[in-house]
Design a protein that fits this description.
heterodimer; A: about 400 residues; alpha+beta; Alpha-Beta Plaits; Ubiquitin-like (UB roll); four-stranded antiparallel beta sheet; 9 helices; about 25% helix; B: about 90 residues; Immunoglobulin-like; about 50% strand; Sporulation protein YqfD (chain A)
Amino acid sequence: MRQVQGAFITGYVTILIKGKHPELFFQQCTRNGITVWDIRKIAEDSCEGNIKLSDVKKTRKLIRRTHFKLSFVKKKGYPFFYKRFMNKKPLLIALLLSFILAIFLSNILWKIEITGVPKEIEEKIEKQLDTYGIHRGTWIFSLDSPNTIQQKLVEDVPELLWVGVDQKGTTYYLEGVEKVIVKEAEKNQPRNLIATKKGVIKRMYVAKGLPMVQVNDYVEPGDLLVSGEIGASEDSEEEDEDDKEESRVDYVAAEGEITGQTWYEVKVTIPLEYDYEELTGNKEKKYFIKVGDFQLPIWGFGNPSFENVHYESTENPINLLKWELPLSIVDTVISEKIYQKGKRTKEEAIQAGIEQARSDLLLELGPEAKILSEKVLHESNERGKVKLNLYLTVEENIASVQPISQGD
Amino acid sequence: MKKLQQRVQSLLINSFALPSDVILELPRITVIGQIHVYIENHQGLATYSDTELKLKINKGYIQIKGKSFVLKMMLPEEILLEGTITDIKFLPE
């Protein structure tokens, strides 16, 4: 069967031989080196068989010397298929056109995707690209290489620090990095540091400027702590000896942290009897669907028979995929509460007063302040209330900025 | 002289184990079930029809009978027959 293999590609024909003992013709064929296969006897005087397309000429020559009649029945194989196909002109043209169209379309820029930059810069980039001729619907091969575009863009859009241009098929991917334009920090004006409160300096840390005070000095509000004028006092003496030149003074912005010990006197009043609320632990849950301001109860009807109640509601918005719906589920916990009356002794009241004073003061001074000690100066008991006069020692930053005015 | 040739031939077959079809120019027939017959070393087609195939061999004929015969392949000294085979007969000349 090896001889027959590949016959479809080279093409083969089915021939019909008519005459007396037609099979003998095929015998003759094989003797002449013509491969024949699938021989079938159809009738007494006719016989059918396949021969290769390349053997047709030889067969014709052979048949002339015999009394047999040759006719071709079927033509099969790629050469015939190709011929038939080439004869169908409209199909051929359509195929060609669609091929051209596919090439045409795949060479058009379909999409520009800009990522990594805010909207307004995105628009700026798009505009800039437009001036280069890069917009939807242009020919890809008429564009510059991504590298050139990259360079041009960075040059022409000052907001861009870097842009990566990548062409993938019919899409341009641009990834930008925005230049964060940091305004150069305003050059610090010359300034001094002065005290805001009276106190005793505990620690000093001077980054810039000339310290004018020392640790353990007592300062009043407005006292100069760190001077922004450098070289004023020392140089002046030397220059006095010289040509009495005007002293050369450098002005700097004084910087530093001066921690001082300050004092406060606080008055607090603490009642000996007080009210407070307590939850009993009995609670009920209610659920609502909330649309706008309207709440539709879906679970838990009727009001509990609590005398005093405490409400606690949490709202859970409902999401659909990534959108938030204007609906939300509210679950409300209604707890029973009772009012209690408490009593405390004088000592407890004083302790509570001190605590209250401390926390009030810290709230006023900020988190950096530190309360060192407190002292009860005076206490009095009037009409069920304890009045306290407290004296608190605090450590805090007492420096504040004062610009130096340079007369010019 | 002929006797000598025959004796040499049988000697070759027996002592050298050469295949007998090559030495004696006899047909080699391979039958695959009922569907295929493969005949080598024949000397020509005598008759062929839908139900019968007759091949000339060295001395006489081979007659193969059956149904719906198709000559799957035909080469100068080989034939592959396909169909439903019922008998294979050797006919004297």
